[in-house]
Write a structure and sequence with these properties.
The protein has 92 residues and is an alpha+beta fold. It is built from two helices and five strands.
């Protein structure tokens, strides 16, 4: 199955609630590569690469997040060229 890349931007109460760490766990469980980081505006951004069905599963998970999070909106941008990642990790 062809790999694709998307950027997922999550808004709401998503910092200080283990959102990044939980996203890393879920993305690794799904076998995806990429990064997740906190942004200065209080949102979280993930860039993920993998099969489309697994990315759709990650996006669905991001709409819920970990128990302490409150997700208001999730924006997804699909990219023409996949980005290669060795693993999925949180960055600062």
């Amino acid at each position: 199955m062809a790999e694709v890349t998307c950027t997922i931007r999550i808004h709401g109460l998503v910092q200080g609630v283990w959102y990044r760490a939980s996203t890393v766990e879920e993305a690794r469980r799904l076998g995806l590569g990429g990064i997740v980081r906190n942004l200065p505006d209080g949102s979280v951004e993930a860039v993920a690469t993998g099969p489309r069905d697994r990315l759709d599963a990650l996006i669905a998970w991001c709409r819920q997040g970990p128990p302490a999070a409150r997700v208001d909106t999730v924006d997804v941008t699909w990219h023409q060229q996949p980005t290669a990642f060795d693993s999925f990790r949180a960055v600062r």
